[in-house]
Specification:
Blueprint (H helix, E strand, L loop, with lengths): L3 E5 L7 E5 L8 E7 L14 H9 L3 E5 L10 H13 L4 H5 L4 E11 L1 H10 L10 E5 L5 H6 L4 H8 L7 H7 L11 E6 L8 H12 L4 E6 L13 H11 L9
Parallel strand pairs: 3-4, 3-5, 5-6, 6-7, 7-8
Antiparallel strand pairs: 1-2, 2-4
Length: 256
């Protein structure tokens, strides 16, 4: 049995994902969809999440590591957000057809890092999607696009994504900003390094506070002495906490 299967969910070269399968499965296994970060830019690829996908499959779940159209590779907000929705929908249609392991499509979990976390939590709020996740995990998530843009933080990357400045079209930024779209109705775990200099931890603090205020189950795990890219290093607490939050029982009762 192949442990990795490449599946196209669209016709564009960037519309594909790698499905990593566990070697031993007694019954249907949960599916974890991984969305990589990297400023929504073609300079970064799904290989950022490959190590986590492999590790998750070793621990008994199917990992769906998705690529998507990004700025410089056919993307912009309309294309990027559409791809993420389509990739999630593929869990119920394309993946079961090509998986040698039975999949539990009623237990789909989403993990995103940085810009990928913005996409993950935004996707959790798309209530019309045919597949609804059972939990979403944000790793150092860029969850407040509107405030960052209005403060001119991350401006070039966001303007490239949306094709317009915040000053000219603030509503577009708010519509894509997870903080401004609560509640999602999906239980959420935010993990953030206290020393993150690229996406300050306040983004996750503000999101969890707002989500709870609007009735969502949400929790923040703060990781001391670690920064933005610690999630890519298997020796860190951020890495171990991600596995715990994705695979563990009821992480919302275990604030850190």
């Amino acid at each position: 049995m192949k442990r990795r299967v490449t599946i196209a969910y669209g016709d564009h070269p960037e519309q594909f994902g790698h499905l990593y399968l566990p070697t031993d499965a007694d019954g249907p296994v949960p599916v974890v969809m991984l969305i990589h970060g990297g400023y929504w830019s073609a300079d970064f690829q799904l290989t950022l999440a490959t190590s986590m996908a492999v590790e998750l499959s070793r621990r008994g779940v199917a990992a769906w590591n998705v690529e998507y159209r990004r700025v410089g590779a056919g993307g912009g907000w309309a294309e990027t957000s559409s791809d993420i929705e389509t990739a999630l929908g593929a869990v119920a249609t394309l993946l079961p057809e090509q998986s040698a392991v039975p999949l539990d499509i009623d237990d789909v979990r989403i993990v995103g890092h940085s810009a990928g976390a913005q996409l993950a939590v935004w996707l959790a709020g798309q209530k019309e999607c045919a597949v609804r996740p059972t939990r979403v995990l944000s790793q150092a998530g860029a969850l407040d696009l509107a405030s960052r843009a209005s403060a001119r933080v991350g401006g070039p990357a966001l303007e490239a994504l949306f094709g317009v400045s915040y000053a000219d079209d603030p509503q577009t930024y708010r519509d894509a900003s997870p903080l401004h779209r609560v509640p999602t109705g999906v239980p959420t775990v935010c993990i953030h390094g206290v020393d993150d200099a690229q996406v300050p931890i306040q983004a996750s603090r503000s999101y969890v506070e707002a989500a709870r205020l609007h009735g969502d189950r949400a929790v923040l795990w703060e990781i001391p002495n670690e920064g933005h890219n610690a999630f890519l290093d298997r020796t860190t607490r951020s890495w171990a906490s991600t596995l715990d939050a994705v695979l563990g029982d009821d992480p919302w009762d275990r604030a850190r």
